[in-house]
Amino acid sequence: MNIKKTALYELHKKHNAKFVEFAGYSMPIQYSEGIVKEHNITRNKSGIFDVSHMGQLFIKYSNDITDKLQEILPTDLKNLKINQSKYSFLMKENGGIYDDLIITRMKDQYMIILNAACKQNDLQIIKNKLNDQNLDMNNNLSLVAIQGPESKTILENVVSNVSKLKFMNGENFSFKNNEIFITRSGYTGEDGFEISLPNKVAISFVEELISKGSTLIGLGARDTLRLEAGLCLYGHDINENTSPVEANLKWAISKNRINDNFIGSHQIKKQIKEGVSKLRVGIKPETRVIARESTKIFDEKDNEIGKVTSGTFGPSVNASIAMGYISNSHSKTDTKVYLEVRGKKVPANVCDLPFYKKSYVKGEVNV
Amino acid sequence: MSNTKFSKEHEWITLDGEVGTIGITKHATEMLGDIVFAELPEKGSNVEKDGTAGVVESTKAASDVYTPVSGEVVEINQSIVDDPSKINADPEGGAWFFKLKLKDKSELDTLMNKEEYDKFAKESSS
């Protein structure tokens, strides 16, 4: 299979990126600074992420389309305001998650941002539901995120008036006479923006952000940032065998749709009513030892009670952190558990997510 | 570091009398990236040449640390356990891992000198 490159590939190379293959794309895992420094730059200043490997799907708006999308998404799209975004999922009948996504109601269309590894399958599901085999992702667009406390000021210097955007809202702006769409969102636990823009201006746009003081950040730091923020990585923390209820993502199912019909709704209703046997929780080892994906979790009597789905060292919390699924009976905060790492049992505690939360909230941001 | 020898697993050892000081090379730390965890052998334990004698973890992955020679662990460097970032900062100096009382000095003859190691590291990373 031919490995794909994003429109920013040459810029990554120029900035000494180390590349890895991710979902069929050659993506920067880190630059010369290294993962920990890149993580800290994002938390303390501003970082730029190339997320162009993600799918950008645009669907013409109509009441009929809204009805059909509501049959496959658990989100209240009818009350979604123009320029508003929501986190949602595509589910299986049994409640398992095919993908998590962000859907934005633009003026004349919906924009759906899909995970790179899932986007072809997602597209097929949506095509079948809408009975529109011509639907396709827009491959002429790049997607860039800028995240961190100084991002607002930096982006404002490149695109005027962008700081008026509220969290999980977007709008059209222009860059060098090209229409671009910016939402105030991200996946790092920081204030930030995601910018959808034509491939042909992607490099010059990112170069301007760099010249105003932001820095390119690789997938390695993106992973430590999102894990500190308690956010799920599809294919690891959520997949076809975990439901939104088990994943503790019930909040993303619109309240007025819980009794509605959508794919997976039967199982969701049942799980909300009867409870679930496993639950996604935060786990904090008592030592610096890292409990990586697939690490087994035990109770005090040595019964296996779960598995870690993501684990790393969190630079901002200066501790080893993990997430995983644990039997409901042991999912309470502060429950003592043991993680089996290299044959030894490491004591750990179930903890609340996120691991890292900003100590301040900006006035105009709705978080 | 003229009396320093190197292993193919990217450890270094410097001999002072009967005792060898062991650490990982700068090249190893560059391949690993930011080191965030280190585990050392127990003081008083015996380790065998090419056997596992510790672990380092970067943000990306875990890697075993091997001992280039056999012997008894007489000292460990607790400061790198407390602050593993020291390993990236000074891998071939202050961030040594452990000291061994050598069992058989002739094992050192199987190791590379600096020039040989630099060539080996360059070839293995290209």
Description:
- The complex is a heterodimer of chains A (367) and B (126).
- Chain A has helices at 9-14, 35-44, 63-70, 119-130, 151-158, 199-211, 219-228, 265-274, and strands at 18-22, 25-30, 47-50, 55-60, 85-91, 97-105, 109-114, 141-147, 170-175, 178-183, 192-198, 215-216, 278-285, 296-298, 304-314, 319-327, 336-341, 344-351.
- Chain A has 367 residues and is an alpha+beta fold.
- Among the domains of chain A are: 9-52 and 139-228, 2-Layer Sandwich (Gyrase A, domain 2), CATH 3.30.1360.120; 277-351, Beta Barrel (Elongation Factor Tu (Ef-tu), domain 3).
- The longest helix of chain A is centred in the middle third of the chain and has 13 residues, at 199-211.
- Chain B has helices at 26-32, 78-82, 85-89, 114-125, and strands at residues 4-6, 11-16, 19-24, 35-39, 46-47, 52-58, 62-66, 71-76, 98-102.
- Chain B is an alpha+beta fold and 126 residues long.
- In chain B, a hairpin with a 2-residue loop joins β2 and β3.
- The A-B interface holds A 29-30, 34-37, 220, 224, 288-290, 292, 312-313, 315, 320, 342 and B 33-34, 36-37, 39, 55, 57-60, 62, 81, 84-85.
Low-confidence stretches of chain A: 363-367
> What is the 3D shape of chain A?
globular
Largest sheet of chain B: 6 strands, antiparallel
Beginning-to-end CA distance, first to last residue of chain A: 42 Å
In short:
The complex is a heterodimer of chains A (about 375) and B (about 130). Chain A has about 375 residues and is of the alpha+beta class. Helices cover about 20% and strands about 30% of the residues of chain A.
Q: Secondary-structure map with pairings?
A:
The complex is a heterodimer of chains A (367) and B (126).
Chain A: H1 9-14, E1 18-22, E2 25-30, H2 35-44, E3 47-50, E4 55-60, H3 63-70, E5 85-91, E6 97-105, E7 109-114, H4 119-130, E8 141-147, H5 151-158, E9 170-175, E10 178-183, E11 192-198, H6 199-211, E12 215-216, H7 219-228, H8 265-274, E13 278-285, E14 296-298, E15 304-314, E16 319-327, E17 336-341, E18 344-351
Parallel strand pairs in A: 3-12
Antiparallel strand pairs in A: 1-2, 3-8, 4-7, 5-6, 6-7, 8-11, 9-10, 10-11, 13-16, 13-18, 14-15, 14-17, 15-16, 17-18
Helix pairs in contact in A: 2-7
Chain B: E1 4-6, E2 11-16, E3 19-24, H1 26-32, E4 35-39, E5 46-47, E6 52-58, E7 62-66, E8 71-76, H2 78-82, H3 85-89, E9 98-102, H4 114-125
Antiparallel strand pairs in B: 1-2, 2-3, 3-9, 4-6, 5-8, 6-7, 8-9
